[in-house]
Amino acid sequence: MSVIRAKLRSRETGMTQFEKVSHFSGLHPKPAGLVLQYGTAGFRTNAKQLDHIMFRMGLLAALRSKNTKATIGVMVTASHNPEEDNGVKLVDPMGEMVTQAWEEYATLLANAEQEGLIMALQEVIEREAINMGQEASVFIGKDTRPSSESLSQAVLDGVSALGAHGHDYGLLTTPQLHFMVCCKNTEGRYGNASEDGYYKKLAQAFIQLTKHARNRTDDQKHLLVDGANGIGALALRKMEAFLQKEFQFSLFNDGSQGKLNFLCGADYVKVQQRPPQGVEMNAGERCCSFDGDADRIVYYFNDSAGRFHLLDGDKIATLISTYLKELLTQAGLDLQIAVVQTAYANGSSTRYLEDTMKVAVRCVKTGVKHLHHAAQEFDIGVYFEANGHGTVLFSKAAEERIQRLATDPNINDEKKNAACLLENTINLINQTVGDAISDMLLIEAVLAIRGLTVQQWNAIYTDLPNRQVADRRVIDTTDAERRATSPLGLQEAIDALVKKYQMSRAFVRPSGTEDVVRVYAEADSQESADALAHEVSVAVYKLAGGVGPEPEPLH
Ligand code: 16G
Ligand code: MG
Question: Which residues act catalytically here (predicted)?
């Protein structure tokens, strides 16, 4: 019925909606036979293959908007992938990743051959009973990749082909776009849906929070930032004035010379376990790296002996959850706090959180959508992937209790202070998704309030040595998912290898963003972790039909 209504309405303008879609679709044709899978966070591949995908995700976003009667977001980015790749992420009304139920529709539209596109659209419309007369609105953002310009135009074409209103924000970090969508759909209660609105909200909260930290020296206010030659660097520069010198930074890899994510950025630093190129760091100086769309962050420093120390998402989760737990105790609030991690979480972090901090820990599958949903089940859910993607979610009830306490005239100073800190902390956090800039400011504030140096933070627990490997040669890329996880005997082989090492753990999974299999190993020493990672990758190579030469030992 909804389909018929769509046809009737558009007839007045001469062209039916579907004729319009067909017409525009001809400008963004799908290469016949090309099949792309919806990955961990949307479609991601070489930018040359993505024009039709972008157009069609514009269509899908318009449908999702009609379906939810709310603004939907489309972000053109491939995050930490190399510059020649690109990708697309869809954002649901409250600023979260698009619901998994719609991933199926995304795949359906993406892979429909040219002549089957209208039928695929009709299927979505019918299955969701979408009223095609409903108004629709889509926010669009893009990262700094050269291909993002024309690809975001393709998204806009898709949006307007279905008569939806498209608002193109141009260059944004991924978390900024998530923020805008949430602001819009909460009628400004979450903040103002503009870039300045974002900077103002976060900067004000940071300035309020750091008022609670006494005697901050200039050194403590200063951080070295690796912008991964991406959008995060541009955003941070724009934010500078709003921070009123309460936070100062030296920005490296700001995109003026280097290539996006090349030998720099959070993913490089985490996986390679070494500092990015292009950052001039002195011993003991606090440094951090964003990834290509600024939704991840890791910290690090070199000690006086020149040794590199990484503070990843696990260390960040520990710092933040410890801080929040202390504030809850001071405020006398019995709210349940939990930390959500993935299999990549260092074994030491999990043990520390559970045994020493007595915080509940949940482990879920890789990918923000899984962590985000699990975190929503608690009063306060702190979620971080080891790779540095994460944030904190406060339930509505928790936020209300904190607000009531902060304005209660009958409480003592200690409680009032803790409640105010919690309130400002909530305002500083981007609860829609992990946000490198928001996380960075929160970490800086927590270190200042607790009077911790980066060395003291690092010493909270000691990481087990670990190694991640991803090798394009290791496995046939077209069928990576099943062949990595299901060859008979692979898990048994891994189990047997793990037994050979002390305190060890290892797993393999097909990447959802690249054509590789990822291998993770940890053990009591770096040599053991490296050896185990190598042995497991050889097992994958042998049992999962690896291509190219056999993986070589690390180092
Ligand atoms: C994406 C995910 C990230 C995950 C990573 C894993 C989102 C927004 N991002 O970047 O959470 O850690 O993929 O990559 O969901 P992999 O599947 O290639 O290992
Ligand atoms: Mg990213």
Answer: 79
Q: Which residues constitute the domain of residue 509?
A: 466-543
Lowest mean pLDDT among 99-113, 206-220, 238-252, 470-484: 470-484
Q: Per the structure block, which two tokens stand in for 145?
A: 């990749």
42 with 151, same domain: the answer is yes
pLDDT at 288: 98
Which of 287, 310, 333 represents a domain boundary (last residue)?
310
Which residue type does 271 have? V
Q: In this structure, are 151 and 26 located in the same domain?
A: yes
Whether residues 473 and 428 share a domain: the answer is no
Same domain? 138 vs 9: yes
Question: Token pair of 504, please?
Answer: 């060890």
Pocket test for ligand 1, best of 40, 178, 485 (most atoms within 8 A of CB): 40
Same domain, 22 and 162: yes
Question: Residue 253 carries which side chain, given as an amino acid letter?
Answer: N
466-470, strands of its sheet edge to edge: 466-470, 517-522, 505-510
Domain membership of residue 548 (yes or no) is no
Number of structural domains (the chain) is 4
**Predicted confidence band at 188 (pLDDT cuts at 50, 70, 90)?**
very high
Range name among 205-219, 265-279, 385-399, 416-430 with the lowest pLDDT average: 205-219
Contact assessment for residue 525 and residue 464, using Cβ atoms and an 8 Å cutoff: no
pLDDT at 516: 79
Residues with C-beta less than 6 Å from any ligand 1 atom: 40-41, 79, 366-368, 385, 387, 389, 511-514, 518
CATH of the domain at 357: 3.40.120.10
Q: What Cα–Cα distance (Å) separates residue 547 from each residue in 484, 485, 493, 552? A: 13, 16, 19, 13
What's the confidence (pLDDT) of residue 106? 98
Clarify whether residues 144 and 9 are in a common domain.
yes
Report, as an integer, the average pLDDT of 405-430.
95
Ligand nearest to the CA of 480: 1
Looking at 310, 327, 345, the residue that finishes a domain is 310
> Are 157 and 246 in the same domain?
no
Alpha helices in 40-116 (DSSP H): 51-68, 103-111
Residue with tokens 């009304």: 93
CA distance 548 to 551: 9
Distance from the CA of 449 to the center of ligand 1, in angstroms? 32
Q: Are strands 390-394 and 360-364 parallel, antiparallel or unpaired?
A: unpaired
